[in-house]
Amino acid sequence: MERPKLQGVPSCPFAKISLSAFLLMSLSLVASAQTVLTGIMTVPRADSVVTRLRDGRVLVTGGFGGSGAGYLASAELFDPQTGHFASLGDMHSIRLGHTATLLQNGDVLISGGGFWLNGAHTVSSAELFLAESQSFVIVGDMNTARSDHTATLLNDGTVLMAGGFIQEKDAVLADAEIYDPASRRFTRVGNMTAPRYLHGAALLPDGRVLIAGSAGSGNARSAEIYDPQSQTFEATSSPLGPHEGDPVVLANGEVLLVGVDDPPAISSASEIFDPRTSTFRFATPSWTALYDATATLLPGGAVLIAGGGDEFSTNELTIFDPATLSYRKVGALQAPRTHHSAIVLRDGRVLILGGEGDRGEVLPTAEIFGAPIRHRAIGR
Fold first, then answer.
1. Comparing C-alpha atoms, which of 205, 296, 200, 208 is closest to residue 243?
2. What's the pLDDT band for 378 if we cut at 50, 70, 90?
3. How far apart are CA 29 and CA 371, in angstroms?
4. CA distance to 6, 199, 281, 297, per residue, from 116 (Å)
5. Tell me: the pLDDT tens digits for 173-222?
6. Omega of the bond prior to 299 within 30 degrees of 0, cis?
């Protein structure tokens, strides 16, 4: 089954912590390799976008609610202290395949996306979630309507929007633009070296951005670098296989592409990009993630890969250990999930929510992986 073109791309930054703290956190989480059910979302959601706020709560936006609810404009907040979800009402637009990026001032930029309602609609609008007032306000439109794009917070506080898809035109985009939080407006910044959607973008330690892969066969096996100083895109060495979806920046600054197992559409093993040499190498030639699995960086430096599946969703939980370049199974989800969302909480646990179950039903449930790290909270 072909992956839907409207798919969100969440992201989650980490504070810098010491190596000894990393190792302690890693041991704590791996020792607690299990999940427990937490609160129920206010509506079932697949392909929602999750963003951790400064106060530790999690903003959940948009997605698909199933055949009855359809595409969603609604949003809600998850409180890790109580395990409860609370409705925030509706955003200013229905959004699926949008992005939701935490800005340096604590607000969240929500941009683009699309939906089907008497035909395809791709969204150019953007809005802010104001964390203090818990309200949504419209900002300037993007120059190009786009879904399935990436949004990367740069070191200067601006946001790079790159690529995406226009459903009405069946068009994959190469253009990019920058959002300036001071003016609340978007400015064009040229074109990538190749059109991409459902690709991945990762902020490198030196402030540049790695952009890699794409859905479809054309540019899935290519990558490029955006330099914010010159505001230019330049091709870099090609990945060893085709890729789509979120890369993960590891603790040493290298970038993990987990691979995708969805033959014949796409099949690739996990790889690591080294920004010092601008080259890719296999992380382990014999392992690849299930289609639409989530990959979440744990505070100890390991990566949790959860769920996924194409024809059928799965409940698999796997840990990638960068030190040994190895994968190992660490238990199972409480429910099989694909098209779900995952994000690390401030105390080191991982929230996994929504998605589609093994019968294709859209899920309202959420669960948490790991035990809280008591001695230090992430992001404080």
1. 200
2. low
3. 6
4. 10, 22, 40, 33
5. 999 999 999 999 999 999 999 999 999 999 999 999 999 999 976 899 99
6. no
